[in-house]
Structures are given as structure tokens and as C-alpha cells.
Description:
The strands form three sheets. The protein has a four-stranded parallel sheet with strand order 2-1-3-4, sandwiched between helices. A four-stranded parallel sheet has the order 6-5-7-8, with helices on both faces. The chain has a four-stranded parallel sheet with strand order 10-9-11-12. By secondary structure, the protein is an alpha/beta fold. The two termini are 36 Å apart. The chain has helices at 2-6, 18-24, 31-40, 52-61, 84-93, 107-112, 122-133, 144-154, 173-182, 196-201, 208-218, 229-238, 259-268, 277-291; strands at 8-13, 27-29, 45-49, 66-68, 99-102, 115-117, 137-141, 157-159, 187-190, 204-205, 222-225, 243-245. The radius of gyration is 19 Å and the shape is globular. The chain is built from 14 helices and twelve strands. It binds 1,3-dihydroxyacetonephosphate and iron/sulfur cluster. The site of 1,3-dihydroxyacetonephosphate (13P) has 13 residues, from helix 3.
Amino acid sequence: RLKKxxxxxxxxxxxxxxxxxxxxxxxxxxxxxxxxxxxNVDADIIVQAGVHFMAETSKIxxxxxxxxxxxxxxxxxxxxxxxxxxxxxxxEKFPNYPVVTYVNCTAEVKAECHITCTSSNAAQVVEAIAAxxxxxxxxxxxxxxxxxxxxxxxxxxVMTWPGACEVHEMFSADDVEQLREAHPxxxxxxxxxxxxxxxxAADFAGSTSALANYVAEExxxxxxxxxxxxxxDNVASANPNVNFIRPCNLCPHMKRITLPKILDSLCxxxxxxxxxxxxxxxxRLAVERMVNLKH
Length: 295
Ligand code: 13P
Ligand code: SF4
């Protein structure tokens, strides 16, 4: 009722708990899908059921809309690892290489970079910008593992930054081996924010939505999603025939977003995300370059 009264939509990331994801989310998906929805949706208010950088991305792409986040403390270890000043220094030192940033960063960092990427299109973005700049070297910040995995996938030299996702860096190739021993025949899926040896040992790598699509299309008998815990809950309810084995890590930032806080957010119109228009204009160029890439 409140959503209708206020012409509001809730954008729910795949890592939201099922009560949010399945009951109140109007649009669900990975960070790229949610960014596309923010740009296109016909609504006055967006409630971002996700973390702070995602709400900033929505505001950058939809500056005329009111963007709310139910808890401003919902951060991200990757976004906290790098500043706009860091990127300026990188560009000074390496002026001939394009700088790509994973969207998991502040608006200020996006404003300093040539293009953004998400885990679903990182390889495609790196290939496109390397061709555009006619270079064999691309800088991809701030996720060192995503960068290494993209380098392995594309053969392009990728320089990086020592940031990591605190959820995915916890998984190891040993975990994969132990899971295979304990559950013969299990299919193991992992996102590219995991260390490279984890991806080598896994059966398939992709963004959160790519993992969900894999389960829906392949219907494996037994599956492990080496990622945030709510992901298995959400994918499991859409695939009742698949047996989910659930080692997982909680993202403390995503888990700050709860159903009661979403209700408060809509009732009291808080907390509004504002991005300095000068920064937003530059950041929008980097995000739109990504969003407009053919897929
Ligand atoms: P995607 O939604 O792009 O797969 O990213 C996962 C993530 O960790 C976002 O915080
Ligand atoms: Fe950041 Fe990792 Fe949490 Fe996503 S899961 S918000 S990348 S810390």
C-alpha cells in the first residue's frame, strides 16, 4: 500500500533475505540489473534494498528520483578500500592505461575512472576498453581477485589494487576439495570475487544472477553456491528440485537491510542518498559507458 501511495519501488539485490527479496522486492537481481532498472523505472522513489554504493549508483543514473537506503551503514569492504585521491594518483603514474572500476566503490571513485564494470561484465568491459585505447594493459580497481580472474579469462594484462570482498576472499580451494569429497557429484559455483584458485577448482564462475541462471537452466542434482548466505535461500526457493549444500558467508553490510527498516524508510522518507552533482555528472559518464555496452 505504501509503495503504491508514494509511487515507490524497491530494488532488491540477490543477497537480501527472502522476506525482502521475495515479498517486497519489485525488481530483483545482480548489481548490473538493478542499475539498469534504476535508470528506466517509472517511479518517484527508489528504496535500495542493497548496500550504499548501489544506492549511489541508482542516484547517479536517476538524479530526478528520490533514492532511499534503509540503513546508511550498509557499506562494502571493496568500496572502503579506495578513494578518489587514490585513483588520481594511479592515473598520474600510469597515464597511458585506462582505469576501470568495479561498481563496488564510491561515486567519487567512479567519477575518476574511465568506465565501471560489474562481476557480470568485467571481462567484456576490459576487452572493450583495451581495444578502444589500443593497449595491452588495463587497470581494474579495487578488487584484486576480480582483476586476476579477468586477466586469466581475457589474456589482457590487468593491473590492480589490494582490495577484496570480505565475503568471497574467505573461500579457499581447500573448501572446494573438501566439499567434493563430502558430497560426490556436487556442482560448485563461485563468483569472480573469489580468489583465482577457488575459481579454478569450481565448475562455473559468474555474477550472482549468472549463478542463479545456471541453477535454473542446468538443474544440477546437488549444488553449492560459494557466496553470501541469502543467495542459496533465494535460488533454492525458485528451484525446489535442486539439493543445496550450504557453506556460505554472511555479508554484514547487506544484512543491515531488514524488512522493518525498509518500512521505516518508506514511512519516514529516510535516509535520502545525495550525490554532489559535479561528481555525479562525471560518475554517470563512467556508469553509462558500461550500461550502454552491448550485451
Ligand atoms: P553482483 O550483484 O554484481 O553479482 O555483485 C555481487 C556483490 O557482491 C555485490 O555486493
Ligand atoms: Fe561488498 Fe562483498 Fe558485501 Fe558485496 S558481499 S557488499 S562486495 S563486502
